[in-house]
Amino acid sequence: MAKLPPRASRKRTIVIVIGGGLGVAVIAFLLIYFLLFPTSSPKRFALKAAVTSTTSTSTSTSGAVPDTGTGTYQISSGSQAGYRVREKLAFLPAESDAVGRTSQITGSATLTKAASGVTIKAASFSVAVNTLKSDKSLRDEKIHQIGLESDRYPTATFALSSPITLPASALKGNVVHVSATGVFNIHGVSKRETFPLEMTVSGATLAAAGSLTFPWSEFGMTAPSLGGFVNVTGKATMEFDLRLTRA
């Protein structure tokens, strides 16, 4: 076999060294990402109460509407919002949930009396998505430039567009299941969505938990991929657990 000229041989050696170095770097990254920082996904948000009722239970046992649950409620401590996506390592069949959350939320809701309970007349919230944190700092760094691109779009917002009526049972601290319709603005794109919601009102405190699952493309995003080795599936979930206190 003919020998390569010395210069060509040196170039080939450099290419091999660089290629080998990149391979080692990729392996090191994967080891750090998946072994040194194993995924421990938080559970989905859900409200807790002694009794769970549905919107079909529209009155309390006595039939009277408690004299609470009206006025303006503002976001208070304990509120969280974030994302949940399915993440997969290229050469492994199993997927796992990647979850990032933040407590940097502002907003309020206005409740008025209704014939059988209370009505949420208006509500709007803003989430600082550029403060989202997960169990992996490498992931947190990447979503600033890819997927959510939180450096370019640092906030996500929601504004209720249709009133929500809560039955009287919700005013006794029971969890009720309702549907909410409003406009989400995520990644600079606004969409009107309807989604399921859990709610309860206890004295001067209102709680709401829910989620919205959507294709990345619905809000102008592309599912992030890290060098083809770490891939995210085609849908993302926005989830929240809001605690509000009457002003």
Rg, Cα atoms, Å: 24 Å
Choose one word for the global shape: elongated
CATH class bucket of the largest domain = Mainly Beta
Main sheet attributes: strand count, strand direction, barrel closure: 8 strands, antiparallel, barrel
> So how many helices?
2
General description of the model:
This protein has helices at residues 6-36, 137-142, and strands at residues 71-75, 80-89, 95-102, 105-113, 117-128, 155-160, 164-167, 176-186, 189-202, 205-215, 225-226, 230-246. By secondary structure, it is mostly beta strands. It has two domains: 7-36; 40-246, Lipocalin. The protein has an eight-stranded antiparallel β-barrel with strand order 1-4-5-6-8-9-10-12. A hairpin with a 2-residue loop joins strand 9 and strand 10 (205-215). The protein is elongated, with a radius of gyration of 24 Å. It starts with 5 loop residues before the first helix and ends with a strand. Residues 33-38 and 50-67 have low confidence and may be disordered.
Question: What's the layout of helices and strands?
Answer:
Layout: H1 6-36, E1 71-75, E2 80-89, E3 95-102, E4 105-113, E5 117-128, H2 137-142, E6 155-160, E7 164-167, E8 176-186, E9 189-202, E10 205-215, E11 225-226, E12 230-246
Antiparallel strand pairs: 1-4, 1-12, 2-3, 2-12, 4-5, 5-6, 5-7, 6-8, 8-9, 9-10, 10-12, 11-12
Annotation keywords:
247 residues, mainly beta, Lipocalin, 2 domains, 8-stranded antiparallel beta barrel, 2 helices, 44% strand, elongated
